[in-house]
Amino acid sequence: MPPNPQFSYYLYNLNTPISQENTAWRQPLPLSRHLCGENADNSISQGDYFLATRHFLETNDFETVSIALGQCLNKRVTPADITDMRVCLAKHGEFYHPARVEVAAGAQSASFVLNVAVSGAGLRTIQEEYRSLKFLNDEFAHSFIPRVYHCGEFETTWRQKLGLFLGDWLEGYHEFHLCADSSGSAVHVRLWDGQARRSVLSTAQQTEIYRQAARIMAYYYNVETFEQIFAWHHAAGDFIARVEEDAVDLKLIAVRRYAPLLKKQNNLEAGGADVEMMLQTLLLFFLNLSIRMRLDRLDGVGDIVWADPFAVSATVEGFFEGLALKPSIPSLPDAIDRCFAYFLSVSSQEDLGDLCRAVADTFDRRAPETVIVRQNLEAHITSLTRSIQQYLQPS
């Protein structure tokens, strides 16, 4: 019997169903999370969006969806087993308009994210991001990113192209962003844990978020080839967190590019980087990460803001944890984390400061975060060198 699941569509939550009979079906799809002011040139309607998701999910007679559901349920699922699909447009971002797709096979179900690219930035990114996520899941033993299953395209009746890919929906995980306190004089991490709720995290929980984010970035950095994940940003919601009392778990949901930090050098092409070059490049990656880890937008959409100094010590600790998870490299005399600890121990504070300033000089001068980085750089260098000393020589 051919598959014939029942489709239903929703806007932002399951209390707001939408169909072709609703006027909202014909309204333009908002092009950002601001939800207004950017739709003048958009001829893609919300109905086009849902039709694209259905077309994608029906690919190969639901074969892709049945395989994904089977992996989540740890059992064999055929396309004919699928009974229902609920597609809920979740939010609007700079790159994608993700939908939560709940797929049911009788009494059992699982949820997936279907990322939909509409903007030029999203369409330029989506295929490479799909390949990067798939590569990292295949190549690395530990996983801090969602599995992905399929990538494709859809063309509207107005000949506008949409890009889509299907991945795991991470249940219970939410965006987080820096927010101002009631006096406006300090910033704190706030978890976006529901439509109306925004929970301010404790200092311990905030510290854990930065520690785990640094661990993830360090783990996926390739010490031998210099490949790294970029361009990530807290403001884009690239990291998401699940917070249950004192327990915090972080995932990275965006890998827009995975490419070398430096261009290929002759010694790389001849057989690999030497030890000093590997450690020096790892140091540059670490210093760059320490700066970028402190950047966000106020409430995710406002002005660029700078995290408090506790984020620095958390970044240092998490970075070494990520290195410790990595397999050994034959050309290094010891484990990666211990080699890097020694390399830092023989680096002077003056050298670290000069390298931090050199890293900051590589930031795009037109980018709004560059001004904030320059305003806070010297204080950051002080916090960073102090945190390194405390990590290497604990009291």
Structure in a nutshell:
This protein is of the alpha+beta class and 395 residues long. The protein is built from ten helices and 16 strands.
Jot down its keywords.
16 strands, 22% strand, three-stranded antiparallel sheet, 2 domains, single chain, 10 helices, alpha+beta, seven-stranded mixed sheet
| Largest beta-sheet details | 7 strands, mixed
Q: How would you sum up the global shape?
A: globular
Strand element count: 16
Q: What's the domain count? A: 2
Output the helix-strand order.
EEHHEEEHEEEEEHEEEEHHEEHHHH
Question: Roughly how many Å is the radius of gyration?
Answer: 23 Å
- Strand order, sheet with most strands: 2-1-3-4-5-7-6
Low-pLDDT runs of 5+ residues are 35-41, 266-270
Secondary-structure-derived class: alpha+beta
- What portion of residues is helical? 25-40%
Overall pLDDT confidence: 92
Distance between the termini: 69 Å
Provide the β-strand percentage band.
15-25%
Secondary structure tally, helices = 10
Explained architecture:
This protein has 395 residues and is an alpha+beta fold. It has two domains: 6-168, no CATH class; 176-392, no CATH class. Helices cover 38% and strands 22% of the residues. The chain has helices at 46-57, 59-73, 120-139, 203-220, 266-271, 275-292, 310-324, 336-345, 349-361, 368-392; strands at 6-11, 17-18, 84-89, 99-105, 108-117, 148-155, 161-168, 176-180, 187-191, 199-200, 227-230, 239-244, 247-252, 257-260, 295-297, 304-306. Strands 2-1-3-4-5-7-6 form a seven-stranded mixed β-sheet. The chain has a three-stranded antiparallel β-sheet with strand order 8-9-10, with no helix packed on it. A hairpin with a 2-residue loop joins strand 12 (239-244) and strand 13. Helix 6 (275-292) crosses helix 9 (349-361), helix 7 crosses helix 8 (336-345) and helix 9 (349-361) runs antiparallel to helix 10 (368-392). The chain is globular. The chain starts with 5 loop residues before the first strand and ends with a helix. The model is unreliable at 35-41 and 266-270 (pLDDT under 50).
